Description:
Elements: H1 9-15, H2 24-28, E1 37-47, E2 50-52, E3 56-59, E4 62-64, E5 74-86, E6 88-93, E7 95-96, E8 99-100, H3 107-122, E9 126-134, H4 138-144, E10 158-165, H5 190-194, H6 197-200, E11 203-208, H7 215-225, E12 229-232, H8 239-248, E13 252-253, E14 281-285, H9 293-302, E15 307-310, E16 322-324, E17 334-337, E18 340-343, E19 349-352, H10 356-367, H11 371-376, H12 380-386, E20 402-405, E21 411-416, E22 419-423
Parallel strand pairs: 1-5, 6-9, 9-10, 10-11, 11-12, 12-13, 13-14, 14-15
Antiparallel strand pairs: 1-2, 1-3, 3-4, 5-20, 7-8, 16-17, 17-18, 18-19, 20-21, 21-22
Amino acid sequence: MTSDLAPSISQILMVLGQHPTMDDSDFWNPDVGRRPLKAITNARICHNGSLTTGPMFFHKDRFTSAIPHPDAPTEKIDFKDRIIAPAFIELQTNGCLGMHFTNFEDERSYGENLEKVSMYLVEKGVGGFYVTLPTVEPNVFQKILPGLRPREYDNGAALLGAHCEGPWLNPSKKGAHDATLMQLPSLTSIEQLYGNSDSISAIKMITLAPELDGSTELIKILTQEYDIRASLGHSAADFETGLAALRAGATTMTHVFNAMNPLHHRSPGLAGLVTSAESPYFSLIADGIHLHPATLTMAFRASPQKCILITDSVEMAGLPDGLYPGHAQIRHQQRKRGNKVTIEGTETLIGSCSSLDECIRNLKQWSGCSLAQAVQCATENIANLMGLKDRGIIEAGRRADFVVLDDTGRVLETWIGGKPVYQKA
Length: 425
């Protein structure tokens, strides 16, 4: 066989159904020592809700399943039988460290604060996050959204885009949102509320109430024309209306059981969709405040592959207990007690101050599931929902973003793009 007919390593990997993550010259070249292939050894790896063993390789910033050539330099990293999981993904966070994502003064300071959040989140094992913008004035959306288009930070969690939680919500299920700013889909357009293409391109998910006039058509527009995930939430919809929304293109539900009709044995509401044959993805706030552990367990057990853990964190996350001022979403003072945040003088929950690694440990403890199953709810399930092809799963071709855990689920190290960026002291 002549050399020009010999299959390349890339071609062999493609035949095997694997994605080549380096070019052939890097793969075979003994001089690749400047950026050697690295092998994860002596570790248990979370994959698809189970723990697997065996070496996993990464080169530069990507995982590869390729077997190194004998002459290729390989750096073996001994993880001492610890657990390796994909870096977690925050699907719903409103802020932390004093930054609420609706507070905008100027582009420079907003960008600097986003980077600070990014650096903080890797300490919690997070490798990527979606900024959640709750119901605010259209001009606030339009000022903030252009700065939320996806980007990487060298030593922090990647910004993956925006999750707009409103304003197409039901005022009767407003929670801590401002009902006076809520809109009907039949009377407003995505451009009127969020702005031009620079703004809309940052939006990856929108939470809406499917019972509102015009919601069905809106769901079709969001999913078919803009490739935006439509999530059902802050809603008084019944089961049948929710099912119709799924058939129109909605694929998930936002903080199930919170800000929606309660599950009833004769009228299950949106929460009943968790057990349906057409079950969507669904998010749960596993802080022990928003949901009773038994309720959380019931939902998780109904569909572990569709369950998503979120923090719904607010700007007091990472700050001491106390009284804090309002902002563009909450015009009242806010009281933080532990992980619980309420509007001062009421029991209205605003959000949580839990971290995603804490939510993973809570699910494991309360449901009795394995750590790998709990991890899946903050990694692979989110990647599958959001169509992420570059992260969220430890497999060839994806970014080498991963977290090192002990057996209880506590974060020991976080690696971003094949580099360690956090190590517990």
